[in-house]
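Repro:
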Amino acid sequence: MPSEKVPFYDPVPPTYDEALAGSSRAWAPPTRDPVDERNATETESRSLLPRAGDSSQGSRRPDGYRAPTVETDDEDSLWDSDSDADETNQVRREMEELEIEEPGRTGGTLWGKRIGFNLSLPTWKWSWRPRLPRIRIQLPSRPSAPADNSTAEEAVDREDPDNMRSWLQDFAFPKVNSMMVIVTVARLLALGIVIGFMYFLFASGMLTGLTNGMNNGGMRFDPEDLRVHLQKSVDPRRMRAAVKIFSSYAHIAGTEGDYATALDVEAMFNKAGMDVVEMDDYYVYLNYPRENGRTVQILDETGDSAIWTAALEEVERGGESAGKQTLAFHGHSKSGDVRGPLIYANYGAREDYQKIKDMGINTTGAIALVKYYGTQTDRALKVKGAELAGFAGCIIYSDPADDGFLKGDVAPNGRFMPEDGVQRGSVSLMSWVVGDVLTPGWESKKEVPRMKVSESQGLVKIPSLPLAWRDAQVLLQNLKGFGQKVPDAWKGGVPEVGEWWTGNESSPVVRLQNEQDENEKQPIWNVYGKIIGMEQSAKSIILGNHRDAWAFGATDPHTGTAIMIELARIFGDLVDRGWRPLRSIEFMSWDAEEYNLIGSTEFVEKNVDALRENAFAYINLDTVVSGQNFRAAGSPPLRKSLFHAMERVVDPNFNTTLKELWDRRNNKLEGLGAGSDYVAFQDIAGTSSLDLEFAGEAFPYHSSYDNFDLMEQVIDPGFTYHGILAQVVGLIILDLADRPIMPFDMVNYGRSLETWVGDLESWANKEAEKKNHKGVLKFEGLKDAAATVSMQAQQFSKWEMEWDRLVIRSGGWETQELGTARIAYNDKMAAFETALLDLELGGGIPNRTQFKHVVFGPQLWSGYDEAFFPAVRDLVDAEAWDDANKYIAKTAAIMKQAAAILEI
């Protein structure tokens, strides 16, 4: 059960209709079997697709119901997504039915065996179950009396072998006439036709495919029909309803509200028909603010009394039904009550703190005031930089020049941060330690050993708090005349400040109090749903999204939550109708991502060996709809599937495909840094990962203004981009999970490595020149390794054309030997990414050994940004030139070993 917390950061306890608001737990009564439920709803279906509700798969499904713990009469349910009663009832009916619209139909494909024959999605429902016919053979009975009037004993004698001659003498052949000849010939002809037809079924692979499909719980439908069907099935109204319920109350990680969302997702996965649904808990270090434990004050000259106190909190946005909104604080911040002169340090980058030092300003024991965004985007590194510069505390505020009224209209009527808006967030060092900061490298189950809080390298050592510009304005005004005037580039957009000054040791003394509750074993809850593949059930395509939020979280994270729930519904319904993917599809709802990517990292650390063996791809959904500009970051093999999807999906606001818009904007597949749940999969497990979003200008990030009304009225009216992205993600999943040969772009990986090695060499040489290094950085081996990978990938990829040729030449027949080779080919493509991990004892990025990938990983001092070859960059940045050359050579050796996997 969730731990008890004081109510200032917990909502009213979740209830069946209020907290979960008519969630999927209301969809099925507890006494009704899921198979009976599906059979009962078959006759009510509006869809023209068959529904195999009474198939053998019913026994593999979970019960799909978990009884609610509390009841309410509140009618604001998940399905009550519109204000008027008619639309509410319509959405409720459609969500309860979980039906799918009829797609268009196209012709079948060529390949047959193992893939099965490809059924076009029919316009009728299955009313039968495939089974072998019963063959009844009538044995002749003995007559009661012999036909020749002999005795019974004589008849028995005729059956005896010793009396065979006499029996033959008595046997009479039937008379042959023309009618008997015609009947015999007709029967032989019919038998020949039947035998020929059966031979055709086996030779074409149809019967084998059907049998394999049935044995594994699914049938093969035409791929084009499936794609059209999926795109038509995406319903923005359902996603609107999901965003509304999940953002209707505050639910930071580990609280009752968070537990309610976990139960809700679990129930939705069950109702969607997942084969396996599981809730998985971990026990991790989290902190929570005390209502009277946080203070920012300007003290008088004696330092005893406050002459001004910051308001800290936002205007209440939640309302009574949502419970009191989350207090303003920093996750994983340091407890403390410190006082010191105030010094303004721009964006809190290392260069900014160095400039303050170069000005001759003493920062020891001072309080830093810095802005969000800018040249240092990671708030934790702003605080860490202040700590290393000698500051006693750090305040981070939202400046209107970056995300406020100077950009445009502010919330609630616009998308930018209002004057009281506060950006919460974590200040744990996710680019240094990821996951639970007390169990780096192993899963944080209840009884495992833990580090001491004071020993963790993932925590900052000075207290910090976030602030609205409304409060920062007073602090900035009181710096006038102290220190030096700031450079023009340091000036922000806070009104009525007049002159911007740095402050110094003589600045007004500021008190920063941050006393909090801390729990080293706070429970959190991941929720998993799985559709089991019919050919390679152990291999998985994983879709993940985090569920916890700093406040209401309509944009971050529940734009992604809504898409994941919608796709679980669509794919689950397809399984219910007889389809099943070749590889398993997993849907994963992570907890405590906002603190330090905890839920996903602990899962990976617990299952790392299995993931390295069986996880083919990970697709991440987080803050996925905040604008209209499509953005993608990921590992190069996934580019092909991404482009397949983008070429099919149309943006109605621009009346063209996403691929055309992508090309117009000269977009590219970006690299992966840190910042969301793909980190552990890509950098620890070696799973090719993809992070997708429709990005836009700044929005009231991590504030209470990021709520449902802002999403519906400002960011995505009509939930158009929710629908577009759901199509993209669904098509990618279908591509990766159901194509016979996975569409991994290995050639693109080879070419990308060559480009990145060249970029690394140029950057490193410039850094060496800047730092007056006289030695030589040796990149020849690394360049040769990248060229080897590129050449091997081109040769390797030719086998796909050979497989295609063999299958087409045989009229769709795939032999068992060819099928085995195809599966091995798929496994090699996925294994290449894993082979780029540095798994030797003590391996990984030096001093950050959790991160094992030699190509991808977060930069040490720029965690959110992409950083190719992060270990080499760390060593060059630290001027460890000999170690840099050693790691360059080590990386080259690992890349050549990975290239060897791509041998046919």
